[in-house]
Amino acid sequence: MRTLYGSRLCRMLGLDYPIIQGGMAWVADASLAAAVSDAGALGIIAAGNAPPEWLREQIRLARAFTDRPFGVNIMLMSQTARAAVDVVCEERVSVVTTGAGSPGEFMSALKAAGVIVIPVVASSAQARRVVESGADAVIAEGYESGGHVGELTTMALVPQVADAVDVPVIAAGGIGDGRGVAAALCLGADGVQLGTRFLVATECTIHPRYKARVLAARDSDTAVTGRSTGHPVRCLKNRLVREFQRLERAGAPPETLEALGEGKLALAAREGDVDNGSVMAGQIAGLVRDEASAEEIVRGLMAQAAQIIEAVGLRFRD
Q1: Rounded Cα–Cα distance for residues 14 and 136 (Å)
Q2: Fewest CB within a 10 Å sphere: which of 58, 74, 99, 272?
């Protein structure tokens, strides 16, 4: 297993294992991030639309919980993105992942503060652009992922991004066990990012009903809504998703759909309304069958991946 741990991503971030926990708004707080980091991977606090005071508190809590590296995810389309960047720089967070936009306008401030910047990309063209602007690595996130999605699948996207840039590439989307980790490494990734699997970590503080929906999900239980708004999102099917689908079929304007989705992730994740809230999860949810600690998840992923890679190597030698 030692060969899996010596990746340039691990060297860059100071990790034992090339695993990043997804930056999930209303989900990824100090509790989850610190637990993942303690397990030897990279935990992430999601800034989302939260006020800067909350983010600063979570960063300081994570530092109290762990002495290992952790990061912050900044959703660039959020009105609080600039304030989140300021907090990250002031608190000297070592790593930032970004999503839902280009980090170009914030790159100089982040780099001046010594922050390692890792944007999420949905195409090789995006990957090249963010690397040219100063990104240290990229997360190539496929259509299978939960939350905001692009158009390319992980299988198609990751090798093309790996060919397009010379920085570490992290594969994301549809990875929920060691088989997915092994596959991502074979596609040319230096590491992986997982979100859905960590939804059911014991240290994840989302509502138990949200966790129960993920654990009960089958492979066909997700749907993508919001394509007509330009912000497509993958969630588990429920009453809210059916209403989105009805309105989209009827040609509702983007403003109506955006208003319908407002506040719905918090409704599911924090209040437990999994019928009317947005239960974001990836297509891999059907493989997530048990709640476990972050350490058990991380070590299980890597142990299974190592066994698979060794078995495949032996098979080809035969």
Answers
A1: 14
A2: 272
Quote the CA–CA distance of 159 and 187 in Å, as a whole number: 5
The token pair that represents 264 in the structure block: 């719905």
Q: Which residues in the chain come in under a pLDDT of 50?
A: 1-3
What end-to-end distance do the CA atoms of the chain give, in Å? 21
pLDDT at 250: 93
Read off the pTM: 0.92
Q: Please report, for residues 32, 80, 96, 118, 274, the alpha-carbon distance to residue 194 in angstroms, rounded to integers and kept in the order given.
A: 13, 24, 16, 15, 22
- Six token digits for residue 185: 């490494």
